[in-house]
Predict the 3D structure of the following.
Amino acid sequence: MNAIALLDYAGVAVFAATGALAASRKQLDIIGFLFLAGVTGVGGGTVRDVILNVPVFWVLDHTYVLVCAAVGVLVFFTAHRLESRYRVLLWLDAIGMSAYAALGAYKGLAATGSPVAAIVMGMLTATFGGILRDLLAGEPSVLLRPEIYVTAALAGAAVFTAADLAGMHEAVSSVLAFSIAFAVRGGALRFGWSFPTYKGRPGRRPEDIP
């Protein structure tokens, strides 16, 4: 198994685990676990492939769906052993996001040859599954947390694209991209790194607008 295929399966499995952990926090049944694991695991890659107008990866290879199902069942029987499921969810999300930033950039570059498209596809692949998970599970969105998130995916995708265009082997490019994305997101989770927020007048509630 080459580095890209390894990133693909790892990203799906880790994101599926975060979806199943979100299901455990909401005390859903086994079907809820399978659903959230599946949607989170393949969501970002599905949107990427639809936009790129290429065959959707899990339709071509059903192994990805089986991986999501297996992870969902595993988490259903083991989640109660974790002291803080939300903290584990955030760190697993960081791992999955880092893997998918590189993978999405690789697939975007392969499909279009455009560095800009590659970076956008890396960022989208890395973040969309987590957004769907939080939306469906009613969890606070990772995008609305104060720490850096999308920027980490952007950095990983940009590093992969630059390394690939520089002629580096895809395995080296993948490791570099994963390491940068995880360092940025991990640092944000550990040390609270964030950008300055908007300090102007807050928006009014719809009912307050004449």
Notes: The mean pLDDT is 92. The CA atoms of residues 162 and 168 lie 9 Å apart. The radius of gyration is 17 Å. The chain has eight helices and no strands.
